[in-house]
Amino acid sequence: MIPLLVIGLITVGDVLAPASVRLSPLLIAAPAMTASFAGPVLTACVGLLAVVAQIAANASEGFLGHPGRLAEVVTLALVSAMIVLFRAVLDRHMRELIRVRAVADVAQRVLLRPLPVRVGPLLIASVYLAAEPGAEIGGDLYAAARTSNATRLIIGDVRGSGLTAVADASLVLGAFRAIAHWPVPLTDLASHLDTALSAERTEPRDKAPGAGESFVTAAVLEIPDDRPVVRLVNCGHPPPLLLCGSGVKALEGEAPALPLGLGHLAAGRYHTEDFPFEEGDQLLLYTDGVVEARNSEGTFFPLAERLPGADGGGPQYLVDRLHRDLLSHTGGHQGDDAALVVLERHRWSADAPGGAREP
In what order do the strands lie in the sheet with 122-129? Predict the structure, then answer.
């Protein structure tokens, strides 16, 4: 309606104004305005209407055959045709962009699969904040897998950013999913991940910046169904935070390992450490993009301080609360990838269908 109103006002003004005042050349604003929100067909219709309006204005004034007025009509028609052409090209590019985004969205979801809401005795909630605008995955990663009597999880952070970081994240996730279901010790699982990442450096690859130099900090966890503990192999990753009745505790082990991909520096260094994880407790896994997020004054996000006031709800409530606090702290500008995963343990019934928790 706005382009039509513009055409009407300009036409009436041109007819009522003195002959020395020419308003009809402004009619080109109508198709130009239409192209900003409509397709080529509607833009062409508005452009044609603008040409007709200019012809009508010239005819009402008796200047229809004047060379100058004819030149104005031809110019308006040519410029309107160019606007329609550009809009058609833009529409084609938009359709291609939509297809590319659809493929990228599927690829990202296959790479970083959503964590299940409930698995074994655990309720799970997670959120991923990619630093790259429009992306859903970057250098951070997480995944979960079931064994016959336990749930295994990994959360990690790849050194660097860009396509190299995504490639390494994909490699670690693939290696985890390939072996995490098997009843191998947690230390062997961590060793397998390190070997897979280290072996990739020996393969031919493009000489992209940072290629062959990355490593991955990771926390590999196993939560048995029938024991109130969490087993942890920490490979240089920020320690998980346990929310229990006595407060917030950082699960800092006595023998943390080197990050994945640096296995050639120290062999046989992986050790499993057990920590209490009782019914009703919550376990927070996160990447350094959370604790290193800064506000406008350069202050880091105080993750541990935000946790006591976030209790009283389930995992999804805690994730949503921390997500809002983090965005508020950074002003919505995430400088690094960040991931949050919250686990809550409930009573386990081995006889329940699908491994559901008891009421």
Answer: 118-119, 122-129, 338-345, 282-286, 241-244, 247-250
- pLDDT digit string, tens, across residues 307-354: 875 556 789 999 999 999 998 888 877 777 889 999 999 877 655 544
3-state secondary structure of 334: coil
Q: Are the C-beta atoms of residues 214 and 261 closer than 8 Å to each other? A: yes
- What does the pLDDT look like over 261-300, one tens digit per residue? 886 666 657 889 999 999 989 999 999 989 888 888 888 9
Sequence-ordered list of residues with C-beta below 8 angstroms from that of 128, at least 6 positions apart, any chain:
112, 136, 137, 140, 142, 337, 338, 339
**Nearest in space to 238 (alpha carbons), one of 182, 300, 164:** 300
Contact assessment for residue 277 and residue 223, using Cβ atoms and an 8 Å cutoff: yes
| Beta strand pairing call for 241-244 and 247-250 | antiparallel
User: What whole-number distance in Å separates Cα of residue 203 and Cα of residue 171?
Assistant: 13
- Interstrand relation of 241-244 and 273-276 (parallel, antiparallel or unpaired): unpaired
**Dist. CA 315–CA 346, nearest whole Å:** 12
DSSP 8-class letter at 293: -
Give Cβ neighbours of residue 347 (< 8 Å, ≥ 6 apart).
121, 279, 357, 358
Q: How far apart are CA 313 and CA 334, in angstroms?
A: 26
Contact between 319 and 284 under an 8 Å Cβ cutoff? The reply is no
State whether residue 120 is helix, strand or coil. Answer: coil
Q: Residue for token digits 């200047």?
A: 63
Phi, psi of 242 (to 5 degrees): -100, 125
Concatenated DSSP letters for 178-224? Answer: HHTTS---HHHHHHHHHHHHHHHTTS-----TTTT---EEEEEEEEE
Alpha-carbon span 307 to 50, nearest angstrom: 62
3-state secondary structure 138-180: CCEEEEEEECCCEEEEEEEEECCCHHHHHHHHHHHHHHHHHHC
